[in-house]
Structures are given as structure tokens and as C-alpha cells.
Amino acid sequence: MDNKQIKNESITSQEVDFAQWYTDVCRKAELMDYSSVKGFIIYRPYGYAIWEQIQNYLDKRFKETGHENVYMPMVIPESLLAKEKDHVEGFAPECLIANIGGNAPIDDPLIIRPTSETLFCEHYAKIISSYRDLPKLYNQWCSVVRWEKTTRPFLRGSEFLWQEGHTMHETEEEARTETLKMLEVYDDCGRDLLAIPFVKGRKTDKEKFAGALETYSIEALMPDGKALQSGTTHYFGNGFAKAFGIQFQGRDGKLTNPYQTSWGVSTRLLGALIMVHGDDNGLVLPPLVAPIQVVVIPVAAQKPGVIPAAREIAKKLQDAGLRAKVDDSDKTAGWKFSEYEMKGVPLRVEVGPRDLENKQVIIAKRNDGTKLTVPMDDMIDKAKELLKTIHKEMYEKACRYLADHVTEVHNLEELNAALEKGGYAKMMWCGEQGCEDKIKELTNATARCMPFNQIAFDDVCPICGKKAKKVVLFAKAY
Amino acid sequence: MDNKQIKNESITSQEVDFAQWYTDVCRKAELMDYSSVKGFIIYRPYGYAIWEQIQNYLDKRFKETGHENVYMPMVIPESLLAKEKDHVEGFAPECLIANIGGNAPIDDPLIIRPTSETLFCEHYAKIISSYRDLPKLYNQWCSVVRWEKTTRPFLRGSEFLWQEGHTMHETEEEARTETLKMLEVYDDCGRDLLAIPFVKGRKTDKEKFAGALETYSIEALMPDGKALQSGTTHYFGNGFAKAFGIQFQGRDGKLTNPYQTSWGVSTRLLGALIMVHGDDNGLVLPPLVAPIQVVVIPVAAQKPGVIPAAREIAKKLQDAGLRAKVDDSDKTAGWKFSEYEMKGVPLRVEVGPRDLENKQVIIAKRNDGTKLTVPMDDMIDKAKELLKTIHKEMYEKACRYLADHVTEVHNLEELNAALEKGGYAKMMWCGEQGCEDKIKELTNATARCMPFNQIAFDDVCPICGKKAKKVVLFAKAY
């Protein structure tokens, strides 16, 4: 049976309506479902299992780099959130506030945490007193709530799952190093786990985190030409430490404030995965995050020996350490092909009567649809090799797309054309927020980041004509 | 140096004030800290790492038994919680309610989840339509909020961490089997991981979960003679399913309601661990949950070769798969002995100049204080063996204490005496709530459970004199 004949008709094609395609995939691949409260989604088993793979990778990396997990309260008293001025101004508009507990009003209303800097600072003030107590390298896995008007699954939710690292350091240098080190960990996660190339860089002051001195981000590029901020790390200096009275006795015996960072990635990475790799047949998952890496499907399953053989093949793959499953249900092979393509399973192993006769299987790659006939005895080695190949192919394809969508621009006209094409407009910039605002007004694009290691290519800012100081990437963004 | 000389004076002895001892250990072993909101605690790295070990054990067991993880919203609209009458009556008094979002009032106020039956049911109603969709075996790791008046770290909090399993089944029998199967998994966790013997049994109707038909529990016995309910499993019948309109087409083609269970354990298990095993020197951790299984402490650390040797020993232990660390800080060996005893580290390896000369180490067991001299070459094997021994000894000690504190009683006088001694009063009971209430009124003890596999030992209920039907354990409880 040619699986081209049974293309799944139930999802919108990317070309017809990319946004609808995205929502269709989220639901039909059973990644999520809506709850009755807007912006609060249900992470279904298949979606949550992908998140667990991301958690496993990052948690290991965090621990290897000396971090410890903690858990802070999910509520922040209004008075505590208000302690750092810029921070509360940034978050106040999107707070969910509880003011009834046990049928009685709460004096100091409780904000469901939108982020936990204030909670960590309150705790750090109690447990840090000497340079011997530093660094503190804490991380927390939890969910946070930000009351959003416009929500989309994984991309913007009123509740989302994330990790937030919060660290305190003896010196400015050490804190700055941490800020960049964790950005590298996120970048590694993109390259090695998600097969997504990120652009790394520093945020402009306009785009930085509320209360931070500097924000850095990883930005992913979606096939509709829009950028997706996929993770951030922040350097705080000692501003929060001062506001929260966090002090330690230094090596010189003097009391001083420690330097702080925070950093986080969220289930937004699922949104990036779906869009960067997906196609009109549904999800395409990189092998290392795929909850099912290989699905074994019996063809002409009613023929003697086929189902037992399919089960044995799945068992062999599992024993070899692969996440494999057999679908031996009474659905048609065609339905199954379509279903596991929708779910983005990297490899499909088909086995039918003729394959049994010839001591072979057919292996199909989800990412490009190629099919191979493989001798049964080579199956395990071939499957392992193909999973590596798929990761590499998916990453390289995403890299090519990214490279094709960074356009150097020297004036407003070129900026418009680049944004029209989709992707990043790479521009020299004076550094003034006025020009950033003007671009937003004219094009609806925002400064995504000032990427690392750039060479200046213009002398003047094309917006104001003043001296150009920085290379910036502008793009429309999620 | 004899570590008896440096007993840690900073915690209250159990005999002087058990409750204060408990709080002291929670804080001095750095398991937790208080936040500024009553009942919302901070899980510090050492406490959270123990919880992670428990999570790892249970998550593996859940997956092996076919369960899948999901994540549901952290908020429940008031109208949704109210759909099942008994359930909302049980939980309404302890709800934390949010009614402002993004600076605007929320029409249907949001309850921060105290438990998630209603959310799971709302979702199940959407995704279950045929017997082919069953069973649904879902689990969620999250935190929940129940607004409590009296709070104690880990034992009773306004917020706590837990897992909640929620399953739907085609038949009553299958759901009942699940309810008891998960109770066994919890019991295994006690015996194999926590070294805690639980009493398993069914709750009386008075003590069952709001909305459940039957509740089962594992109960642990604390050294102050009080019981601690440590986990529960519930059989719901199809009551929620009816209230939420969950229906499926059965094998006979007819629409019918599925049968439901839920089950959970929480960070309360940390409270059980602390109390069951702890002593006047602090925590005593069972090896399998101990974040540090072996601490290596250099003695006369200033002598040449001692610190490098200590580091090498720790490295060897780590390479052998043990969670080992060396404390090579400039604190005294005595301080370190005391510190890691407080933290309940199962094994301490001491190494000093004489040990190096004799190619040996000293190994001390936290649970009973015994010390052994071990040839360096045997260290790894001996450490592994001792960790197993310690688990066995701790479990057996707890079993003996439990066995010594179950007293068969035949009248009110004996009931009082048994409760005075501490532990469980084992009594035949008529099954009427009136008698249960009367015992509560007279003794402040509650029915902990009707334990499995009991043999009747009296004909009449000692309270009312009517026919006795069931064996019940009464105890004072946390």
C-alpha cells in the first residue's frame, strides 16, 4: 500500500493557513487539549512525554553544572512582589490574584507566581551571610501563571510549565559567566536534543526582563518567517539583592550584596519543535525527544505469523534501548501509517508476509519519507544509525532555513523587503529606543536580539542617520 | 576523636519535646524553610532531593504498570468543582480562590486545585467514547493547595507536592483491582525504598475521601505513638462519571458510564521518614532515598596525603555508582561528623594518617553508630553491603516498633490503656458511625483503617454491645 494514497485530510495544509495547521497538529497529534478556562491547557500524555524528555536532558545538564533543585511556594504576597520597582511594574498587569482562603478574605492578597525572583530573594536573604555560602545555584521545575489576553497552545498561555534557575554569586564576573553559561546549555539543548538552531544574543533594553540589567535569549525561526523567543537568561547585578537586603561578609570582612542571575525555558519549546520540523502530514519529531522512536506496523496482519513477528521486532528494538512500540490493533495498516506520521514518530518498521519470507523489514523515515529494505539481522544497527541520521538531517535542514532567512539590510526599504520575505532583517543600529519603536510602528517587527560575534557593516543607523553601534536582528515574532 | 563527645546540642531531644525535635530536624538538616505565607514552605535542596528519589521510584513503578503522565490546569472554576455534591462539600472550606486576573474581576472564580478529580473528569468526558478508549491510566505530579488553619512542615501544609493518579475503567472489577494495585505499589515503596512498614486497610465511611465510594490507606506509626496517613487510593464507582457525563459505547453497543479511581501520595512521606527513623542526633535516612549515601571525612586533614586520599576514596565510591561526597572544607572533623549525622547520611568513611599507613578506612553506620575498620581494597564492596544491611536493619526496627504497638482491646478501659501506651488499639466494631464518633469524643482517637486479612476476635462492639462486624484500628493521628 502506498501511504501517499492515504494522506491525512483532517489537518489544514501549512500553505493554506499556517496558524490553523499549528492548532490542528497540537490537537490531532494529541499533544494538548483545552480546558474550560482560557489559556489553561491540558498537557496530554504524548505532549507531556516530550516535555519529560526535555526535562531529563536539562535537569542532567543543570546538575552537572552544579545546580540544585528546590521548590518555592506557588504564591507571592502582593507586598513581596512590590519590593523591586521595575519587576512589579512589568508583572502587575498580568497577575492572577487570590484573596479568599478558607472562606475568609486574605489581608495581603496572594499572587499566583508569574516568576519567582522575589521568593528566591526572600529566602536568600535568610540563608546567605558569608562568602562561604556562595554561590547559590538553585533551579525549580514548576508552572507559572501570567494572565494573557491572547493565548495559543504552548506559545502563549495563562499557565505554562517551565524551569527557573536563580543564582547568587560573590562577584559580578562570576554572575555574568553564569548568565552566558546557561545560555550555552540552552543552545546545546537546541542543537543536540531538539535539532533546532538558535540565534543567541543580548536583548535590547526595551525587550529585557522586568528588573534585569541584561537579558540574553535564544531565538528560533519558524517556517512562517516569524521568530520565537525560546529561552532567556538574565543578569541582575545586585539590584534585587539591595531591594531584599541580601548581604554577605566578603573575604575582606566587609558586608556587601551578591550578584544575581535567573534563566528559564518553558513548554514553549514544544511550540518551537512543532513548527520548526512539522509538515502537512503532522508532527516530525527529532529522535531524541520522540516518546516513540520506532513504531512497528504489521502489514497484512491477518496472515499467519505477521503479528507475532511484529511483536518480536518491537521487543528486540526495546531490548536494544530504543523507545519502540508495536501497533497490533485491528485498525488498517493505512490508518496506522497516517496516525504515526501525524504523531511524528521518526521511524516506521513495516513487516508483512513477503518480508518474513525474505527475512527483511521495510523501514520508513518520517522526516523525508524514504523507505529502505533492511535484512532482519541488520535491523537494530540500521535503526540506530537511521535515528542518528534523521537528527542530523533535521538539524541541517533547519540550519539551512535559518541561513536563508537572515537578510542584511541598509535602509528602510530593504528592511521591509526582508520582513516581507520572512525571517531576520539584520541591521546596524544606533542603540536608541526611538528607532526601535519606529521600526515596530512601521513594520510590526521587534528587535529579537543583538547576536554575538558580529562584524559591523554600516556606519550609520538607517532610521535616524546617527552613528551605528550595534548589529541587531529585527523580525516579526510570536 | 570520639564522636560521642560532640553530640549536637542544637536540637531538642525527642523525650523532652517530640514536636520541637521534629521542627528542629526539619530546619537544621536544611530540609525546608518557612516562607512569609503561613503553610507555604520552601523545599530546600536536601529535602527536595529526597522527594526526587521518591518520585523516581514511584514514577518508574507507575509507568511499569501502564500509567502515563499528564498535566492539568492548576485552577478549577468554582462551577466545575461544584458538579459533584459530596466532593465540593468536602473541599469548599479549604479553598484558595482567585477572582482577579489581569486587573479585572473573574466571573467564575478560580479555585487553586486542592485535588484534580473534576479536571480529569471534564477532560475524560471529551476523550472517552468507546470501550476501546479504556482504560485511561493517567498520573500527574504537581502541587496542590488546601487552606489549612494549623500547619506543620511536610505533615500538613496549605501547599504540598504530590502525585495524583486518576483512572477510568470499563468495569467495576477492573477499577477495584486498580485501587488495590496502587495501594500495593505504595506499600512496596514503604518496604523497599523508605524502610517503613505501613498498615494497609480500608477507611471507614466517616474517614473516606469526599466523593469516593471506598477509600484505602497506608498508615505509618510514629515514635510518639500517633498514626500518620501516608497515602490513599479511592474507588469512585461511576458517580463522578455520571455527574460529568462521561459515557462510552460498550462491547454490547450500549452507552454506559466508566468506573473510576484516584490515588495519591505526597511530601507527607518526608514527614514519615523523619519521624520513623530519626533520633536525637537528627535525621537517619534509608540508603535508597539518601541524597548522600556515603560522606568521606578526612581526619587530621592537615597531615600530608590525607585530603587527596579522601578525595580519591569519594571518587572511587562515585565510580561504583554510590552517591558519595567528600567534605574537604576547613571545618573540624568533629563539626563534620555532627553535621552529616544531623543530615542522616547512612555511611561515614573516615580516613586519617594512620589509616593511610595501614591501607584501611573506618566506616561508621549512622543508624546504630557502629564503626568498622575496613581494608582499603574491600571498601567498595563493604560500603555496598553495609548500605543493604542498614536498609534491612532500619526496616526491621520499624517493624518491631509497629508490632509492639498494636494492642487488641475488648472494652473501653483497654482502649484507653492502649491509646495511652501509644499506637493502634485493635478493636472489633459494629460498623456504626455513632460508636466511631463516641470513641473520638472520649479519646480523641480516630479509626485509621480496617486492616486487610483480619480474624474476628470478639462477638460484640465494646461501645454499643451490638454485633461486631469489622476489625478496626483506632489511634491518635497527625
Question: Would you kindly provide a written description of the structure presented here, covering whatever features stand out?
Answer:
The structure is a homodimer of 478-residue chains. Chain A has 478 residues and is of the alpha+beta class. The first copy, chain A, is built from 14 helices and 23 strands. In chain A, strands 3-7-8-14-11-10-9-22-23-21-20 form an eleven-stranded mixed beta sheet, with helices on both faces. Chain A has a five-stranded mixed beta sheet with strand order 16-15-17-18-19, with helices on both faces. The first copy, chain A, has a three-stranded antiparallel beta sheet with strand order 4-6-5. In chain A, strand 18 (360-365) and strand 19 form a beta hairpin. Chain A starts with 17 loop residues before the first helix and ends with a strand. Residues 1-7 of chain A have low confidence and may be disordered.
Question: How are the SSEs placed, and which strands pair?
Answer:
The structure is a homodimer of 478-residue chains.
Chain A (H helix, E strand, L loop, with lengths): L17 H11 L3 E3 L6 E3 L1 H20 L3 E2 L5 E3 H4 L3 H7 L4 E6 L2 E9 L4 H11 L8 E10 L13 E11 L2 H23 L4 E4 L11 E8 L5 E11 L1 H5 L4 E2 L5 E2 L2 E8 L1 H10 L16 E5 L7 H14 L4 E3 L6 H10 L4 E5 L1 H5 L2 E6 L5 E5 L3 H26 L1 E3 L3 H10 L2 E6 L3 H11 L2 E6 L18 E6 L3
Parallel strand pairs in A: 3-7, 15-16, 15-17, 20-21
Antiparallel strand pairs in A: 1-2, 4-6, 5-6, 7-8, 8-14, 9-10, 9-22, 10-11, 11-14, 12-13, 17-18, 18-19, 21-23, 22-23
Helix pairs in contact in A: 2-6
